[in-house]
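hi! just following up on the protien thing from before. the input was this:
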Amino acid sequence: MPDHFKAEADVDNTRYILRVEFASRVEESVLQQFLKVLDNTLKDVNIEYKAKRDSTRLGPPVLHVMSEGWYERGRRKLAESGKRVFQAKTEILSPVKLETQVVKPELVSIVEMTD
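and the predicted 3d structure came back as:
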């Protein structure tokens, strides 16, 4: 089960990136299943998502497994920049993809959907 997550729009590649921090190490096969269940659940609850995925206007989501403590380090950076963390709402879905240099140090693995 994920500890923390954030979805971002990857406009250049017409897909969503799901960044997830897990409480413990998760096997690749479980990560694949997690991604497939997520995709199918989104199709079930959102007819626009389903239509775009079925027509391939929207590519399959990609999973970024983030390092332990990723979420808390991000919150600390907000606090250091002067934001009141206790008042800030966690951004779960972002229209903007984080820059590679910000994500790369925290990235453990990338999982793409397979058939």
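The first strand starts at residue 2 and ends at 10.
Strands lie at 2-10, 15-22, 62-66, 93-94, 107-112.
cheers
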